[in-house]
Amino acid sequence: MMVRDEIIDQVEEEEEEEEVDKGEPNGKEQPPRGNAEQSPTIDGRETVVGEWTEAMVGKEKDLLQAVIGQRGRWNFLLFFICSYGSLISAMQTMSYQVLGATPDYWCHVDQLLEANWTTQQILHFAIPFNNKTKKHEGCQMYDYNYTTAVAMGYDEAMVTLTPNRPPLVPCQHRDYDLSVYKSTITTEWDLVCERRAMYSTTQAATHIGKLAGSFLLGYIMDMYGRRRIVLVCSFLHILTAFGMCFSINIWFFIILKVFVTSTAAGVYLGLFITQMETCISKDRSLFATMYALPWTVGYMLIPGIAYWVRSWKWLQAALSLPCLVLIAHYWLLPESPRWLVLQGRYDEALKLLKQAANMNGNVPPSDGTILTAMHTIYKKEPSTKTHTGLVKILCDYVAILRLKKLRIRALIIFGCWFTCALVYYGVSLNATNLSTDVYLYMFLGGLLEVPSYVLLWPAIAFFGRVKSLAGLIFTCGVSILIVACIIFFLPEAPVWIATLLSLLGKMAITAASHLVVLFTAELFPTYYRSIAIGEASLCGGIGSISSPYINDILGEKVAWAPSLLFGVASLLAGVVSFLLPETRGQNMPETSDFDQDKGGGRDNKAFAIESPEIKRQQQQHTDKNIDANGTKMVRDAVNMESGKKMEHKQENGTTEMEDTKL
């Protein structure tokens, strides 16, 4: 969810490469190469404009490759520095099940405890037994006169009083089985029964923090740089992560949890962007996939640490210790050279790139040549994103739903994002409802994410995006539905069967969650791409926030219900995803292909978006109607001829989409 801007950049660069292959970079004819022209001066130094810069001008990915060469020691060292943020993020995001584990619990009966009745005697006499769950109730007890029962003794009370059971009353206090866990946030603040929603809110706070951190800090990084924000977020993350150990109540814990995960999102996002901006374009898919692997390592470390540390405060402290390594980023983490160039800080970018070149054993071009290319990049792209008014931003987000083809396409992909996030976190944190070992389930869940990443890329290359996405989501749905059937119809079946099927579903939905991000970037034209992924991320956030409430509140009442809901949602998403168009081997869609359709024939002027393509066409139309002088007439003729060539090219080069494929 947090990597959408980098995916947008990568897809747009692939568009440019396709145009270059056709001989028309960026859709314009390039001037012929020649000898060096008049040399501009930057920071008092004369630069050189020659054949190399004419080929590479304005393309930072080529500049990076020309200076530092192919991937080398510097790239892999930076990867290890940056990918640590993925490990930290996993350890603070997925620790919910062990920090808040819920052991067996029952009503606290003072009189019986003071009379030295054993736990089993109290359960048999005072606590009702639920035949469906095969457990004693934890929220109610019989309303006996317990003073009379104590006077009788256990044996006589069972014979005399139990035949006529009194009404049930809510528990005032509870006792917990502490044979497995010494303490959890559940036992600390009694987060069961009528307070169960507070338990789910602690996990929802995790996703709220991630969502807020991704949206807010992404814009701040554009203004103040990646390195600075990573360092600030690292410092705040360490403080709040250790601060959670000293939480005085559940609300304090929840507030700190939001700060912990939002700062973790800032660290993750900043390091990921730095990683993507310091590798050449053809290596981005490789490093993006590798960046996810430390997440699985952090995921698998949680049950290993929790197995030995059974008190939640000490466990939180142990999970926070790896965060201290983030301090090393002050000395090890460089600023993104791309961001430095866009800020006009050429000397710093030049120094960094030359250091990288030396470590990779590459001989870079001259300083003047590099500085010239940097200057051209700076002129072509502003240092920060252009922010228009709030009304314009809102209109942009509404516009994607006003265009008929985009609306249907967007609604389907939004549903896929919601389902993937809902099911991923729902299945990952569903060990309690499966009655399986939490530690083993978490470890295997993290381990199986590795083949999910590794097998995804050959799958989409062979089957394509649509079949792969639908197949993965459908596989998850079938697996989880079988789990629901086992829990409902075969409650005595071996636990490992349901566990294995649940993990198979998790493996499939993990791969689908990664694929849906790439697919979204390929489905929408350039102007709407950022808007689409932003809205889709929001839908995914809603799904992840919803999952703990389904698992904890619904699952506690009906153990098979969460699996049924996750399975049905996956099947529906898998079916509707077949309606999406295949993008494998297809040119990226153009904005003008969709701007002609305003949906249903209604007036959409209030929501119309004047994309760059529309403005260009309108300007050409205006120019053709101006006949002010002979020069203008000549230009009109040239424009008309160019338009015919462009139309001819589009007719021959653009693949028509089938009507049933939106």
In short:
This protein has 662 residues and is mainly alpha-helical. It is 68% helix and 3% strand. Among the domains are: 4-71 and 340-380, no CATH class; 105-177, no CATH class; 395-662, MFS general substrate transporter like domains (Growth Hormone, Chain: A, Up-down Bundle).
Description:
The chain is mainly α. Among the domains are: 4-71 and 340-380, no CATH class; 105-177, no CATH class; 395-662, Growth Hormone, Chain: A (Up-down Bundle), CATH 1.20.1250. It has helices spanning 4-21, 51-56, 60-68, 73-93, 96-99, 110-114, 119-126, 146-152, 154-160, 185-189, 196-224, 226-243, 250-277, 284-308, 312-320, 329-332, 337-342, 346-360, 367-380, 390-402, 404-428, 431-434, 438-447, 449-463, 465-489, 495-523, 526-557, 561-576, 592-595, 612-624, 630-653; strands at residues 41-42, 45-46, 105-107, 129-130, 135-136, 140-142, 168-170, 174-176. Strands 1-2 form a two-stranded antiparallel ribbon. Strands 3-8 form a two-stranded antiparallel sheet. Strands 4-5 form a two-stranded antiparallel ribbon. 41% of the residues are buried. Keywords: Membrane, Transmembrane, Transmembrane helix. Residues 22-31, 612-626, 642-651 have a biased composition (Basic and acidic residues).
Query: What fraction of residues sit in β-strands?
Result: under 5%
Poorly predicted runs: 20-61, 382-388, 598-618, 621-662
Overall shape: it is elongated
How many strand segments? Answer: 8
CATH fold name of the domain at 395-662, please?
Growth Hormone, Chain: A
Mind summarizing the main beta sheet? 2 strands, antiparallel
Strand order of the largest sheet: 1-2
Q: How is the quaternary structure best described?
A: single chain
CATH class of the domain at 395-662: Mainly Alpha
Task: Please count the helical segments.
Answer: 31
CATH architecture grouping of the domain at 395-662: Up-down Bundle
- What's the name of the CATH homologous superfamily of the domain at 395-662? MFS general substrate transporter like domains
Pfam family, one: Sugar_tr
Biased composition (Acidic residues): 8-21
GO molecular function, one term: transmembrane transporter activity
Keywords: Membrane, Transmembrane, Transmembrane helix
